[in-house]
Amino acid sequence: MKETGYLSYNGKRLRMGYTTGTCATAATMAAVEMLLTQKPVHQVQVKTPGGVDLVLEIDHCQLSPDQASCSVVKDGGDDADATDGLDIYATVTRRQDNQITLDGGQGVGRVTKPGLKIEPGNAAINPTPRKMIQEAARDLLGPDQGVDILISVPGGEETAKATQNPQLGILGGISILGTSGIVRPMSEDTWKESITLEMQQKKALGLDKLILTPGNYGNDFIAEHTHLNPDYIVQMSNFVGYVLLEAMRIGFTDILLVGHLGKFIKIAGGIFSTHS
Fold it and tell me: pLDDT class for 213, splitting at 50, 70, 90?
């Protein structure tokens, strides 16, 4: 692959990676090209939404006259990424019309609750990678040919247990994500976005109150010492100020904070990012 670049964090030089959405797009491009040429493809060049050009290696190629399949290995760079090392597969099947369909298979989660960017019942392939995949396929196919695209991730169901997908009602696997196409190590943006999504989902389900906890200490206290409804709980990590402002924006009317006294002393002192 071409170098995605580095960034500096606390004096360390950290390598950036690329998202599951970029992997799925690259695998789709390779599979479509294989279907059209009936030849294996070993590399493809992808332009990410963030404007970075990547050359990605293609693995596990399989080919028949009407179907092609291949994968790209997810590389999270130096980020602590649960999906790092997973094979992101694309399987494309020739259609008799010019339509392009996109769905998720094994290891790709399925949305079961309202309030997310994808409607319930659909594969958890977010809007930006969904657009990238379909546009890349159309560019290669032209206006007159169509394919069914299936994105799958062996091992995705187990990996998803280490993500927020179960809390968000995304079942059966990971999500195909990425707004910029690039993974920036130690970035808090994706984490914050997932908290916002969880709050938006609770609002869509009709809840107007929240219980905010910094982490497991607060969750355990609620479970062991109170009769509070766990459906209202959102873990805010150290992003107290951000989460409170988002909760107000989304329209929650009552908020209860539950957690360790040390965190709340910081908040009482006007510190709204409570990292140790």
Answer: very high
Residue 179, judged by CB atoms within 10 A of its CB (0-12, 13-18, 19+), counts as: middle
Q: Is 246 helix (H, G, I), strand (E, B) or coil?
A: helix
Write down the number of H helices and E strands in the chain: 8, 18
State if pTM tops 0.85.
no
- Cα–Cα separations (whole angstroms), residue 150 to 88, 134, 183, 235, 265: 11, 11, 23, 33, 50
In DSSP notation, 205-222 reads TT--EEEEESSHHHHHHH
Q: Are 89 and 60 in contact (CB under 8 A)?
A: yes
Output the CA torsion sign for 221, 168, 176, 139. Answer: negative
Single out the residue of 33, 96, 34 nearest to residue 63, CA to CA: 34
14: β partners: 7
- Percent over 90 (pLDDT), the chain: 63
When the pLDDT of each residue in the chain is averaged and rounded to a whole number, the result is: 89
- Point out which residues pair with 7 in neighbouring strands: 14
What letter would DSSP give residue 238? T
Pairing outcome for strands 17-18 and 12-15 = unpaired
Burial group, residue 118, by CB count within 10 angstroms (0-12, 13-18, 19+): middle
User: pLDDT tens, 174-189?
Assistant: 999 988 876 755 457 7
Token pair listed for 125: 């392939």
How does residue 104 score in pLDDT terms, banded at 50, 70 and 90? very high
The amino acid at 224: E
For residues 149 and 92, the answer to whether their CB atoms sit within 8 Å is yes
Query: pLDDT tens across 25-73, in order?
Result: 999 999 999 999 999 999 999 988 878 888 999 999 999 999 999 999 9
Per-residue tokens: 201: 């989902």
